[in-house]
Amino acid sequence: METPPGGKTRMLSVEEALERILALVQSLPVEHVSLLDALERTLGENICANEDIPPFPNSAMDGYAVRAADIISASRAQPARLRVIGQAAAGQTPTAVVEPGTALRIMTGAPMPTGADAVVRFEDTSESLFSPMAPGDDRRRQEIEVYAPVARGDNVRAAGEDIRAGETVLTAGSTLRPPEIGVLASLGRARVAVHRRPRVAVLATGDELLEIEEPLRPGKIRNSNEYSTSALVLRYGGIPVRLGIARDTVEDLTNKLRAAVDQAVDLILTSAGVSVGDYDVVKTVLGQMGQMNFWQVRMKPGKPLAVGVIAGIPLVGLPGNPVSAMVSFEQFVRPALRKMEGRRGWRKQTVWAIAEEDLENSSGRRHYMRAIVTERDGRYWAKTTGDQGSGILTSMVSANALLVVPEDVRFVPKGDSVLAQMLD
Ligand code: AMP
Ligand code: MG
């Protein structure tokens, strides 16, 4: 327990607790992975383009490559007539040269032929009058009528209009979403450097816990925290290393934590055993094995939290109540994982929502209330999921947000705005 002079345990604010946890973790080294394995991970290198993208000027439309000057006064009443000198499909390189008075039939993505400076789309030519012909059958396309002018460059994609050779396209620290994956593919990057995913030991503690396959017995409950916590680890980019259940004895807990250390994990998460009950041995063992602080955080749920380091590995002891464990994870473990993954930011998205009911907070702590936020009439509205007990895990099932009622606010009347931390 952190006990300041005077003897009373000081409660940390959520911000202070988070800052101290983040100080214990660093971004992990990079590794090279194949492109699709990099999805949702953090880029560990700057990406510089070796080529222009697109690499050559090409048609943005199915139409005719022309010289804009030839059709400057074309109209329906007075069409311009051009001699068709051939055609180009995507993937081909046209050799024909578009001289004045001529046009080359061209498909989207085909390189622009020499001489042409614009593309007129089929819809503005007599092509639209033709019924589809078999490929190679170009009997009726000796000459084409054009009904509308185009400006130079119209319907042409210039070389390098997306990416210029030499340009830094993506910087280290970016999250690789589907568009970044696409850009890397267009640059020919089959493998890419990303920060290693954190390996996270997940250890439940408690004499009352059963494996989830076991039938219930008197006095026992199933170990749900191992699963909700491991699922959160996966969701936020980590690799859970499940260590099962430690019994509430110094010996068993010590052995299980040694196993975590042996697995060379980057972070250890325990659940339960950190409050003030008779069998809360986590504190004793952590104190013996490393440097440990037991904190009370000015939040509800999730007041008890153990944080420290054993054998050089940071450890967060989450509270045992299923909702508290998840809320504490969102506030403290998720940012730590994000930092280890090399991300620049780790804030959850928040919105201001209008309370659809009175909200009470008599705790003097920051209250994270499970809530349903909906959008109506261009505004966000929030109502709680009902019973806010820290054992009501189904309240997390119906919630899509946590309402953040500040520690010094005792009452938010219906109709007032409240900050909502979105969970999804
Ligand atoms: P404790 O902090 O050990 O007093 O645990 C607080 C509450 O959380 C008790 O009701 C425990 O039974 C419950 N609990 C502890 N660990 C788990 C777990 N792994 N899964 C579900 N509930 C748990
Ligand atoms: Mg317990």
How would you sum up this structure, described in words?
The chain has 424 residues and is α/β, with parallel strands linked by helices. 17% of the residues lie in helices and 31% in strands. It has 7 helices and 28 strands. The protein has a 7-stranded mixed sheet with strand order 1-18-20-21-17-13-16, sandwiched between helices. A hairpin with a 2-residue loop joins β24 and β25. α1 (14-22) crosses α6 (322-340) and α3 (225-235) runs parallel beside α6. The longest helix is centred in the C-terminal third of the chain and has 19 residues, at 322-340. It is elongated, with a radius of gyration of 32 Å. 37% of the residues are buried. The structure holds adenosine monophosphate and magnesium ion (MG). Magnesium ion binds next to loops.
Summarize the structure.
The protein has 424 residues and is α/β, with parallel strands linked by helices.
